[in-house]
Amino acid sequence: MTSGEPDGTALVVVDLQNDFCTGPTALARFGKDPAVLDASVAGCVRAVARARERGVEVLYVRFVGDPEFQGASWRLRDRALGKQPKCLEGSWGAEFHAVAPAPGERVFTKRACFDAFLAEGFEEYLAARGVDHLVFAGLYADVCVDSTARTAFQKGFHVTVLTDCTTALHLPYDAVLRFMRAVYGARTITADDPQAWTAPMLRAEEESCVLPPD
Hints:
- The structure is a single chain.
- By secondary structure, the chain is of the alpha/beta class.
- It has helices at residues 18-21, 23-30, 34-54, 72-81, 122-129, 144-154, 173-184, 204-207, and strands at residues 9-14, 57-64, 107-111, 133-138, 158-162, 187-189.
- It has a single domain (9-207), classed as Rossmann fold (3-Layer(aba) Sandwich), CATH 3.40.50.850.
- The termini are far apart.
């Protein structure tokens, strides 16, 4: 909201980092057509440009997976599945891929966790800026995007997922999007759709029909 966007919309770019987007680590992990991953990255680049054109604030979330940040359950899972730490702090793999924060654009770091609301200062920043609508781009729809969107919905944020700016890692992508629509009421549209950049609103007659909790 660099220009004071009236409806409190912010674009959240999730984990667009080398170890998730390119190179041997990303490609071995993705295990699908690399063109799908490339298309998602290109969509994120377009989304950042659209947001800046519209004066919508762009927020970046990054992951670091250094062993010292991992909890016991995380380390046990990695040992059991033969996983190696990714996006080590200070490494090439942790660097942003294809995007770079402009001056004044904020970056929030997740330390061995999926949910951006666990990143220091993220929720407080949204509250201070009056953000109530999060537009998601980045990786992956069924992991970190989903984890953050789930918390966002439960905390009262409107959720939009840009379908041309993400893809799924473990689950069928269409099923992930259906789940988000059904459970979080997520709007799932492309970055080119003007509706992506405005918060959903109840009409006055709909607000009057909302029942109080039991």
